[in-house]
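Appendix B. One record, verbatim.
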Amino acid sequence: MVERISDAEHEIMEVLWQKAPLTATEVADRVADAKGWSLQTVKTLLSRLAAKAVIGTEREGRRFLYSPLVERDTYLAGVSRKFVDRLFGGKVTPLVAHLAEADQLTDDDIREIEELLRELKG
C-alpha cells in the first residue's frame, strides 16, 4: 500500500495522472487558478511525493520531469480499502447502508449499484 498522501499532494497527483511527465512549472500552471499555489509550494509538494516514492523524477537539462509511479486506480483501491476497513470493519454493506440512511444515495446511484451487482453476479 502506498503511503498516505495529503489532500494537497493528491491535487498534484491528479494533475500528473492526467498528463505526465510534467515540469514543476507545468504542474504549477495547472493548479494555479484553482489553488493559487506558488511554484515553491508545488515544488515542496512534488518533493514530498518523491520522498514517498509516489512520483519519479527524471533530469532533463536544468529541470526535472515528474511522473506518477503509482496508477490512479491502484491508489484509489488501496485508499478505499483502508477507509472501509477502518470505519466499517472491512464490510461494504454497512457503508452503503449508512449512505442510504443519510439520504446520500440518489436514484441514479441506486440504479448504478443495482446494475453493478447484476454484472458481478454474472
